[in-house]
Amino acid sequence: MKIGILLLAGLCSGAGWAQAPTIRQGLVKPMWITALPDQAGRVYAMGLAPVAPSEAQALTQASQNARGEVLSRLRASVKSETNVSTKATMTRQTGGPLTGTSEQQVGQNTSIQASATELPGLSVEETWVDVKGATAYALAYLDVPVAERELRARFTAQKNDLFQESETPGAPRERLRQLNRLKNAQVELAKLDDMAALLAAGGGDPRLRGDIRAGKLAVDRQMDQLRGSLTLSLEGGAGASQIAAILRNAALRTGLGWAERNGEFQLVLDYRSDARTAKVDVSHAQWNGWWRGGWVSHTTTKDTGIIVARGVLSITLRDRAGTEYESVEIEAKGLGVSDFQAENRLKQDFREKVERTFTKWLENLVK
Fold this sequence. Notes:
Layout: E1 5-8, E2 22-25, E3 42-50, H1 55-78, E4 89-90, E5 98-99, E6 122-130, E7 135-143, H2 144-162, H3 172-201, H4 207-228, E8 231-235, H5 241-253, E9 257-258, E10 265-272, E11 297-300, E12 307-319, E13 324-336, H6 339-365
Parallel strand pairs: 2-6, 8-9, 8-10
Antiparallel strand pairs: 1-3, 3-7, 4-5, 6-7, 10-12, 11-12, 12-13
Helix pairs in contact: 1-3, 2-3, 2-4, 3-4, 5-6
């Protein structure tokens, strides 16, 4: 059973302890183990861990659990969850104490979401080791005013840099770079939004989250404007519908648009193979949409009779004016005891390499 104690304090003041957590050891338990501190502007929680295999590891684990308890309770409050499987004493600005009845046990399994681990103002104030009971305890707190100041500073930096909805840059490469910057900004704003929600649950100013969400909408508008001018189309893809689908999906995942023809940017395909061993038979349905003419070559090993299907595809990115930006070459192959088996495995190999290689290449392009 996950154990934790939480106190939500009102937002009135915010001076925080800067020193490292105090480590205590002995038979007399600190008062915060039975009654958490009641300090305005802070959210307190306790974590514990068994002293095994070492005391140092137990203190580290208890500290992690205490920080996790602060965050998990705040997240539960954000999601309006009321089923809390811990023994807790909770004080709110608008209510009195609320005590649960769960039995306390040594052991915690707190899951800390990635965006919340960056929450500023979250610290461990004190730890204590119960030698007789072989248990380590830690007291953690969130300093809400400190966290709010940090979040506002980060949000202001993003706002000053990105929220000017200026005209779309004329140069195609610069538009790609701007789109990438906006995508990175959205990642940061999503983190800030998540953390602002936690602070609001701890008594912070809910208007901060509203401001951040308004900023996200402003970035969305800029991204939509850029996507409208950054469409990709496929040249040389006749008869290669499945290849086109893979390339289209990879482009859409990067946030770009797709046009059936005459896009702002064009992907030019070049198929190559050994004409002497090329398998040219478009009447087979399993081949349609994967290669055109003699793209795939077949060879058979003399010793084992294994058939090798191999194909090479070059993809070049250019703009409407014919300026080439990047190029990538993908070689795929498949092994089998029949043409059909070898070609199916080639398809899978090609699909994986296109999705991996093209996506990475396009992401590098927009940096």
